[in-house]
Amino acid sequence: MIRFDAVTKRYPGGHEALSNASFEIASGEMVFLSGHSGAGKSTLLKLIAAIERPTAGSVTVNCQNVGKMRRAAVPYLRRNIGLIFQDHKLLFDRSVMQNVLLPLQIAGFSRHEAAGRARAALDKVGLLKREKANPITLSGGEQQRLCIARAIVSRPSLVLADEPTGNLDADYARDIMDMFKAFNQVGVTLVIASHNEDAIRAYGSRVIHLEHGILLS
Ligand SMILES: Nc1ncnc2c1ncn2[C@@H]1O[C@H](COP(=O)(O)OP(=O)(O)OP(=O)(O)O)[C@@H](O)[C@H]1O
């Protein structure tokens, strides 16, 4: 499903965030990205979602070379990807419920079906009681959970998560990880960046380890 061939990413200013990385992730895998702060984990996720483009090498997602994809094609790629990033990009002029409904409205779901799915997603992350709230009134951890609900509501086949449990209490962090595992069991591919080596080990999944932009496994 995902293939990196000799991928290097150099940001303007010359910093090489990823160096000559090659690996494959098969459909249905759950893979953790580990490594120190600044190791290149977010960069790798952004390359998969075509948020960043490689400086050299190729990034293939579902047989498409996303590094060379036309800008107009990127929204179609992203329809199939649930993005959970640290800059939540929530809409602060809409309610919690409206934030989760939006991807479904764009995808053309009926009002009834969209409402049912959005409520189920909010329930999963423990935010159903806050459905009418404005996201600005939520704590950092609650905003993170809202971001997760929004990413999963359209049931994407690939979920990319950047430190999804970073701001969460241990109980919520466990619930979210269990939820990811349940998605994986129904065939969703997940790539999860995390500092938390203990949590990673507990899940026994494949780990791709980065150090200063170099892939070690
Ligand atoms: N837009 C950018 N412009 C310039 N340099 C950047 C940019 N984004 C990231 N970098 C640099 O690239 C390197 C890798 O950053 P990246 O965010 O991928 O690491 P990370 O492993 O996700 O770190 P963290 O765990 O702290 O989020 C860092 O040195 C960072 O400063």
TrEMBL record:
Chief location bin: membrane
Q: Does the keyword Cell cycle belong to this entry?
A: yes
**SMART domains, per database record:** AAA
Subunit field text = Homodimer. Forms a membrane-associated complex with FtsX.
Which PANTHER family would you find in this protein's record? CELL DIVISION ATP-BINDING PROTEIN FTSE (PTHR24220:SF470), IMPORT ATP-BINDING PROTEIN (PTHR24220)
Q: Could you tell me what this protein does?
A: Part of the ABC transporter FtsEX involved in cellular division. Important for assembly or stability of the septal ring.
Listed name of the protein: Cell division ATP-binding protein FtsE
Starting at the broadest rank, the lineage of the source organism is: Bacteria, Pseudomonadati, Pseudomonadota, Betaproteobacteria, Nitrosomonadales
